[in-house]
Amino acid sequence: MPLLIVGILLLAACDNNPPSSIAYDELPADGDASRGEMLFNQTASPPCMACHQENATASPALAGFGAVAETRVDGQSAREYAFYSIVEPARHIVEGYGNAMPATYDDMLSPQDIADLIAYVLSL
Q: How far is residue 47's CA from residue 27's CA, in Å, rounded to a whole number?
């Protein structure tokens, strides 16, 4: 029984969604959607497009993301929702999908890269 309690406490201490190393306020005001598309398709490990394709089934497809993101969380702009979806993906899990997205993109991308990715996904 003591081992069970210790195990439960250890699991509770694990943070599946650590806070981002980049704050939302650190993002540049403007992102470049063309550069964001390039990043979406070929940067990071894994690249965004590996999971978020137009006909995705294991992860949310991003067609119409800009319109949907605006309504996902009360009091949060589409841009802010997109930011947290990238850097703290477990913060808002889309119904029907698990928490499979890596929470490491804030360590691999600069604030400008993230702003560019956001500009791209909001244009879809």
A: 21
Contact 106/21 with Cβ under 8 angstroms? yes
Which range of residues forms the domain containing residue 59?
2-123
d(CA 115, CA 32): 7
Segment 11-17 shows an average pLDDT of 46
pTM of whole model > 0.85? no
- Contact between 35 and 110 (Cβ < 8 Å): no
Q: What is the CATH number of the domain that holds 118?
A: 1.10.760.10
CA 82 to CA 99: how far, in whole Å?
16
**Omega before residue 46 within 30° of 0, cis:** yes
Number of structural domains (the chain) is 1
HEC profile of the chain: CHHHHHHHHHHHHCCCCCCCCCCHHHCCCCCCHHHHHHHHHHCCCCCHHHCCCCCCCCCCCCCCHHHHHHHHCCCCCHHHHHHHHHHCCCCCCCCCCCCCCCCCHHHHCCHHHHHHHHHHHHHC
